[in-house]
Amino acid sequence: MVLMMKEKDIDNLPKNSANYSALTPLGFLERAALVYPNRKSIVYNSVEFTWQQTYQRCNCLASALTNHSVSFGTTVAVIAPNVPAMYEAHFGVPMSGAVINAVNIRLNAQTLAFLLGHSQSAVIIVDQEFVSLVEDSLKILAEKEGKFKQPMLIVIADETCDTKALQYSRARGYIEYEKFLETGELNFNWKLPQDEWQSISLGYTSGTTASPKGVVLHHRGAYLMALSSAVTWGMNEGAVYLWTLPMFHCNGWCFTWALAAVCGTNICLRQVTAKGVYSAIADHGVTHFCAAPIVLNTIVNATERETILPLPHIVHVMTAGSAPPPPVLFAMSQRGFRVTHTYGLSETSGPSTICAWKPEWNSLPPGNQARLKARQGVRYVSLEGLDVVDTQNMSPVPADGTTVGEIVFRGNVVMKGYLKNPKANEEAFANGWFHSGDLGVKHPDGYIELKDRSKDIIISGGENISSVEVENILYQHPAILEVSVVSRPDEQWGESPCAFVTLKADNASDQRRMAEEIMKFSRSKMPRYWVPKSVVFGSLPKTATGKIQKHILRTKAKELGTVKKSRL
């Protein structure tokens, strides 16, 4: 006879301090310092720290912030490139109980003023290069709000660059970051979150849209995403990671915390160049880095003097953002980089789907492999739900690779919500899913593929045109370095594709001839109604993470005026 345990008995075992702790990535740092105290944690030019030193420095930062009345719920803004202090802030700030607001360094004073005011940042840790920008933004904020409590400014001094900026910040008398750390305690009893739902970070969307929204992430999501990113990518213990992706972009896709989990080494780059990437691989044994497709394009088009080929070992690259053009993926693989394609948003803690590679695909022709690798793939292990749905009734679209719907997410790595924006939250979480605003298809094998942002679809004569698909074809033209396609008003068709193109240096002289050649190439490769009726040459506006700002290009396309109906 089998005795059945009552349901209430098996579920009525209480949580206690021995069997339950709020999930947080902060413990990864303490463990790294315990297990590998003498392993290099951070390398930046001639500066090197071990994991023990990084843990102590983060303790000092948390302690010093606490001494200045920073506590649970306080927002601390950090405005800096990929330097050691930016990495330390991702631990030190939440170890004080506060929320880190890592800010895009390419913002203008007006936008920065909005972010600092909206977030109510009480402390600003700022690199010397951006001190005057912060001052300008605070003046704007003070004029706008009247009564305004001036945040505390802490300046990151960097004697390896921009001596004028360093002299300026010192003349202003602000406390420097290293001096500030000296006011803290090495063995500070830092604060665990009281609840894993407690906020760990605030980040503002900018990307390719014009209106920033404050994305709030929690400790639980950061913990799960950090581990999931390492597991999903196959990042080994002791990995050497190059910071080409800005740490301010969704907390460096949570790799700030993941690197401590795998006890790896952070190689910091203040500025990203193709030469810097290749040199770091050769000098530091870099095994992994993340980059937007535009950065990959820069790497594959580097001059012979900038490159170090063949690579001394396989280098793993994670790319996300807009779909990487298959020609760029193919060129990266030819150079010895193993590219993993992921996709996500700031609202999903960064990349949360992956084009998981299957061994049987290795025997396919290179072109087929590149096309498969360009898909956004399947959900991360930490994401509970992913689908492509009909926007009218929320039903899943057929897995036929052609029916377009909206990509939606559900799970623990999805944001808590947008700060002070209930209307946006209601829209984003409608029907129990997070709505990405991205349009895609689902293939028979379950892999999703992004087709466009809903606002980037071009409707020409009633037919939908995916700007991404037109771009992928144009990238096959040997003279094109970068391209972005948006809609332009068209007298006959309502809208028609307009291609903004950056040419490779040796093809930039005769733009009229090149425009005609690009259109001729397009007519041979794509349906006629897809062919751009306008080609505009020049550099493309980008965010700090390399995303092309299509909202700016759409404005430029409108300013070009309406394409007149052909009289032929």
TrEMBL record:
Pfam families named among the record's database cross-references = AMP-binding, AMP-binding_C
Show where the AMP-binding enzyme C-terminal domain sits. 469-547
Domain AMP-dependent synthetase/ligase, residue spans: 29-419
Q: Which InterPro entries match?
A: AMP-bd_C, AMP-bd_C_sf, AMP-dep_synth/lig_dom, ANL_N_sf
Q: Which GO terms describe its biological process?
A: phenylpropanoid metabolic process
Give the keywords, sorted: Ligase, Phenylpropanoid metabolism
Look up keyword Protein transport and say if it applies: no
Any one GO molecular-function label of the UniProt entry: (E)-caffeate-CoA ligase activity
Q: Which domain of life is it from?
A: Eukaryota
Q: In which pathway does it act?
A: Phytoalexin biosynthesis; 3,4',5-trihydroxystilbene biosynthesis; 3,4',5-trihydroxystilbene from trans-4-coumarate: step 1/2
The chain's coiled-coil residues are none
**UniProt family annotation:** Belongs to the ATP-dependent AMP-binding enzyme family.
Please state what the protein is called. Ligase
Q: Which organism is it from?
A: Lithospermum erythrorhizon
